[in-house]
Amino acid sequence: METQFTYEDYQTTAQWLLSHTKHRPQVAVICGSGLGGLTNQLTQAQSFDYSEIPNFPRSTVPGHAGRLVFGFLNGKACVMMQGRFHMYEGYPLWKVTFPVRVFHLLGVDTLVVTNAAGGLNSSFEAGDIMLIRDHINLPGFSGQNPLIGPNDERFGVRFPAMSDAYDRDMRQKAHVAWKQMGEKRELQEGTYVMLAGPNFETVAECRLLQKLGADAVGMSTVPEVIIARHCGLRVFGFSLITNKVITDYESLEKANHEEVLEAGRQAAQKLEKFVSILMAGIPQSGCAS
């Protein structure tokens, strides 16, 4: 059984990164499946393979390159994860969320989380963007939470609130940015539900999730958001809807990871422009309450 990281372990990783780059990021972006191309928009980019960084896990999923990239996007100093970690890779949640606390120690005050998700809301179409207004932490119902274990007050309080997990002001700015882009499809907003994966959902599970009030389903994001809010970071998140989930037993369609990656490729230009515009709306310092 592995022991959880200590505060000193996080410091070791943060200090290593600070000593290997002149970049001092304010914003961290976690790029979901097929969304790693966001890093191509960074100027003065400097990247590190996860294997180089002390204590960093390894990303094993197609569409997750496994690199940490520093640079500037629309004037904001950023660090981007080109690939995240998941429960289904066999990692405990304290390891899945390891980078978020490192970002906090680097001086980051805003976390942008992205993911590829299946559309549960019947009005969603493949290729839609859904701002995450709230989430349902389904693994948390069975005791899977990254905050389980001893609490270190240097990161945050024992019982953090999650009712304001996703920054309202950033969502409002996102709607303004979307209108500036002149996209035909409306920018969606809704609730993301996390399952552990790695299998896609059954018909019965999709129907249940719809009844729970979820609009999109995926296998990530929620643990990182919990840790980010525990650290006091401002959080903004969105899902790329890669497919509509199967809720009809007569359907011959099947969800697959290839369509997830393909949806990411098709939406790449739109997402890169969207995130770039959003950067201008992030305050220069300070965190949301």
Automatic annotation (TrEMBL):
Enzyme class: transferase
Superkingdom of origin: Eukaryota
Biological processes annotated in GO: purine ribonucleoside salvage
Pathway annotation from the record: Purine metabolism; purine nucleoside salvage
Entry GO CC: cytoplasm
Extent of the signal sequence: none
Domain Nucleoside phosphorylase: 27-277
Enzyme Commission number(s): 2.4.2.1
Reaction equation(s) it catalyzes: 2'-deoxyguanosine + phosphate = 2-deoxy-alpha-D-ribose 1-phosphate + guanine; 2'-deoxyinosine + phosphate = 2-deoxy-alpha-D-ribose 1-phosphate + hypoxanthine; inosine + phosphate = alpha-D-ribose 1-phosphate + hypoxanthine; guanosine + phosphate = alpha-D-ribose 1-phosphate + guanine
GO terms, molecular function: purine-nucleoside phosphorylase activity
Binding site for a purine D-ribonucleoside: 201, 243
SUPFAM superfamilies in UniProt: Purine and uridine phosphorylases
Keywords for this protein: Glycosyltransferase, Purine salvage, Transferase
Chain positions recorded as phosphate binding sites: 33, 64, 84-86, 116, 220
InterPro entries: Nucleoside_phosphorylase_d, Nucleoside_phosphorylase_sf, Pur_Nuc_Pase_Ino/Guo-sp, Purine_phosphorylase, Purine_phosphorylase-2_CS
Record bears the keyword Glycosyltransferase: yes
Self-association state and partner proteins as the record states: Homotrimer.
Family, similarity comment: Belongs to the PNP/MTAP phosphorylase family.
Function: Catalyzes the phosphorolytic breakdown of the N-glycosidic bond in the beta-(deoxy)ribonucleoside molecules, with the formation of the corresponding free purine bases and pentose-1-phosphate. Preferentially acts on 6-oxopurine nucleosides including inosine and guanosine. The purine nucleoside phosphorylases catalyze the phosphorolytic breakdown of the N-glycosidic bond in the beta-(deoxy)ribonucleoside molecules, with the formation of the corresponding free purine bases and pentose-1-phosphate.
Protein name, entry field: Purine nucleoside phosphorylase
